[in-house]
Amino acid sequence: MNLSFFIASRYFKSKKKRNFINILSRIAMIGVAVGTMALVIVLSVFNGLEDLIRGLYASFDAPLKVELVKGKSFEVGDDFLDSLKAVEGVVSITEVIEDNALLKYGEDQMVVTMKGVSEEFLDKERFEQGYFAGDMTLGSPDQPKAIMGRGVSFMLGVDPKNEFEQLRMFYPKAPRAGTIDPRQMYNSGRLGLAGTFSVEKKFDDSFVVVPLTFARDLMDYGDKRTALEIKVAPSASLSSVKAAMRDLLGEGFSVKDTDEQHAGLLRAIRIEKLFVFITLTFILAVASFNIFFSLSMLAIEKKKDIAVMIAMGATQKLIRSIYIKQGAIIAFSGAIVGLVLGFAICWLQDRYGLVSLGVASSVVDSYPVKMIWTDFLWTSLSLIVITFFAAYRPATIAAKVNTVEHL
């Protein structure tokens, strides 16, 4: 066994003459344990929230989305679609026409995001992680139906049981010169209500999904589309399919995965997670001040022992090493307890949902958690750095004990 570690462990286990040194050591261990546990739990909650958001968005958005880099719409023909479907890993392609439109129900009206989609949009995984009520259908060309966000339905006061009141959608068109009839300045269409969904506030409060043919006729788009949403086979590599799509389409088109489609929100969550990590690390550093005081008191109490060891040939490096390892034993004893408790609490939360969100309208009942090994690694590394700085000064003071004065 390493000599410095052996002596440090004996100091840790032995009773001190001054009882408050023992108390300081125990307080330091408890502080490190609580801080480590809190850090693990909070980081796991952020991971869970990030995964939850990804899952909710994935139930509305496709794994890959093709759009123009510059411009609003592009021509889509059968040959163009066939070339994209030929890419290995592509399961289906949803044609999309998306723009703002005015939606009216009864006497109420609001501007919504109309999303016209082809039949492939309503696959079996759609709205899987959200809330859905009604029929998963967009009707027929003769009787089109809409699926709207729950927020839109609430703001318009839509009654799904009222079969006599229909939704009316209005979209402006370029007026002809000399036209004074306001009815010539917009297109309109009627729809029934098939169902409502709740995925995320951004979608719930603005999106209305309609048949592609309805959106095409309302906007006079013909073969033009604003986007293509591509579903990828589970066994295929998403990055490989995305790279193949970019090579096929060229620089004029962007191909974005789910994370890139919502890069701003995910970046905000990661930045917030980073700042929370830094803040809790500072709190952990403050808790580790007790290690500094505990080692300082121990160095004062053990001056005679240090003098004896120096007289026997111990170097200053060995004395420093003893006290640094003594601090490491205190810190890591607390850290191990904290990591185990943090893991156990996160596991129980993930399995049994101990802590509820307390929001009745939420799509999940309890706080989501996800443990990632890198969080445990960074927590441990930050603790190593904090322990070194907390123990270095007392260790240096102990190494400078005057042998003549204390023998």
UniProtKB/TrEMBL annotation:
Superkingdom as given in the UniProt entry: Bacteria
Membrane topology: Multi-pass membrane protein
Domain ABC3 transporter permease C-terminal: 278-401
One example of a Gene Ontology biological process annotation: lipoprotein localization to outer membrane
Domain MacB-like periplasmic core: 27-247
Family annotation (InterPro entries): ABC3_permease_C, Lipoprotein-release_system, MacB_PCD
Listed PANTHER family: LIPOPROTEIN-RELEASING SYSTEM TRANSMEMBRANE PROTEIN LOLE
Listed name of the protein: ABC-type transport system, involved in lipoprotein release, permease component
Organism encoding this protein: Echinicola vietnamensis (strain DSM 17526 / LMG 23754 / KMM 6221)
